[in-house]
TrEMBL record:
Matching SMART domains: MltA
Signal peptide (from-to): 1-22
Name of this protein: peptidoglycan lytic exotransglycosylase
CDD domains in UniProt: mlta_B, mltA_like_LT_A
Stretches that traverse the bilayer: none
Pfam families the record matches: 3D (PF06725), MltA (PF03562)
Lytic transglycosylase MltA domain boundaries: 173-329
Chain intervals with Pro residues compositional bias: 39-48
SUPFAM superfamilies: Barwin-like endoglucanases
EC number from the UniProt entry: 4.2.2.n1
Record's catalysed reaction(s): Exolytic cleavage of the (1->4)-beta-glycosidic linkage between N-acetylmuramic acid (MurNAc) and N-acetylglucosamine (GlcNAc) residues in peptidoglycan, from either the reducing or the non-reducing ends of the peptidoglycan chains, with concomitant formation of a 1,6-anhydrobond in the MurNAc residue
């Protein structure tokens, strides 16, 4: 969430060829006051690390499924948005598998997205706000028949070759403290000297591109990388929101983009993505796999975490190969996605807004059953780039961690657009 929106790309991206996104991730989470909510927990004497450590449940074993075959279409290399990638009319929604319970959650999430859909510009170049108004008006009274709602008001279209890859993300909970303690790692707010640069303001040829850095003399230079930050380079330049008991868990909280910090007195700090240092993301799981560090059954988020804990010095060096570093802000409510709206476990999906209008429904037909159904694109992620790359959100808790930790699904994606939009787009080609 901009995943919640984060660095995200889902845990499975740690062990795949694709870098993690964000994901609840990097995005435009509004500034909110400090959020602290009570939660009973044993306290630890000052200076000692709390005995609490988040459970590391094994990844949930998937239920195999047979995805619907995509419509034959050649992928378009170098496409920068959905229209350039190519649009293909897909089978009717009535011919596609839709679970009623999952559609119910998706309808509720879509309803939340409507105010944004009807007013925001669409970077995918597919829709206008007016296109969404009829479906949004109808959504208010459609609770009795969620499947019928999507069948009545939407038509599926395939973007590019339709071959989809989906990972998963969730809201982690880590142990921490408000004050510094031995072995704890600081959780930084956005530094005062971090500068965002929209390159499109300098040249139309650079539209849509941006960089982050810091001013050094008369030059903009790259911002401090992970190694420098962990060695204390931000002293006096960034506010510290709290301290994480486990640097490994903090690393993966940055991957997810938001989470909960459980304090010794039982209170909880809710933190969300604020910004990132502008450095490229490197998926450490792929590095570890390529170096033969992950044995059979370890190619999952849980296996990576175990290895890093068991080899602390080597693990620190591996994590520092990912130069990207995420900064946080304090939140007081539900996790928010890239639209600035609450995200819903089992219904929210992160997507690339250049290929999927944020707020739009997406139907996934994948090779594992828990990823199938209608999802609503309410989030983004740093590794979620291109057509048909998605990150499924599963909420919080041990079950969410178990599902997200092993989520790696391939199959077919169909974007659901308001009735009539596909005809207009095809006629304009």
């Amino acid at each position: 969430m901009t995943r919640v929106s984060r660095a995200k790309g889902g845990w499975a991206a740690l062990v795949g060829a694709t870098a993690l996104s964000a994901c609840v991730g990097p995005g435009t989470v509004p500034e909110r006051p400090t959020g602290v909510s009570p939660r009973p927990a044993p306290t630890s004497p000052p200076g000692q690390r709390p005995s609490y450590r988040p459970s590391n449940p094994p990844p949930r074993q998937p239920t195999a499924a047979v995805p619907v075959a995509p419509v034959a279409a050649a992928p378009v290399a170098g496409a920068t948005n959905a229209r350039e990638a190519g649009l293909v009319r897909a089978p009717s929604i009535a011919a596609l598998p839709i679970d009623r319970a999952q559609a119910t959650s998706a309808l509720a999430a879509f309803r939340l997205s409507c105010p944004s859909l009807v007013r925001r510009a669409d970077p995918s170049a597919l829709t206008t706000g007016a296109d969404w108004r009829p479906a949004c008006d109808a959504a208010a009274g459609a609770s009795a028949d969620p499947v019928g709602f999507f069948q009545r008001w939407f038509e599926p279209v395939q973007v590019g070759d339709g071959r989809a890859f989906a990972t998963g993300y969730y809201i982690p909970e880590i142990a921490g403290a408000r004050e510094p303690r031995a072995g704890y790692a600081p959780i930084y707010a956005r530094p005062d000297d971090l500068v965002d640069v929209d390159l499109g303001t300098f040249s139309p040829a650079l539209a849509g591109k941006s960089i982050r850095g810091k001013v050094q003399g008369t030059k903009l230079v790259p911002y401090d990388d992970r190694t420098a930050i962990e060695n204390g380079s931000l002293a006096g330049r960034a506010r510290i929101l709290g301290y994480a008991a486990d640097p490994v868990e903090l690393f993966f909280l940055q991957v997810q983009g938001s989470g909960l910090v459980r304090l010794p007195d039982g209170d909880v700090l809710r933190i969300g993505y604020a910004s990132q240092n502008g450095r490229d993301y490197t998926g450490i799981g792929k590095l570890m796999r390529d170096r033969g560090l992950l044995g059979p059954g370890q190619a999952s988020m849980q296996g990576i975490v175990d290895y890093l804990h068991q080899h602390p010095d080597e693990g620190r060096a591996i994590m520092r190969e990912n130069k990207s570093y995420v900064f946080f802000r304090l939140l007081d409510g539900a996790p928010l996605g890239a639209l600035g709206l609450p995200v819903t476990g089992g219904a929210t999906i992160a997507a690339d807004p250049k290929f999927v209008p944020l707020g739009a429904p997406v139907l996934l037909s994948m090779d594992r059953g828990d990823a199938n159904g209608i999802w609503i694109a309410q989030d983004t992620g740093g590794a979620i780039k291109g057509a048909n790359r998605f990150d499924t959100f599963w909420g919080a808790g041990a079950e969410a961690r178990a599902i997200a930790g092993g989520m790696s699904a391939r199959g077919t994606a169909f974007l659901l657009l308001p009735v009539g939009v596909i005809d207009r787009l095809i006629a304009a080609r």
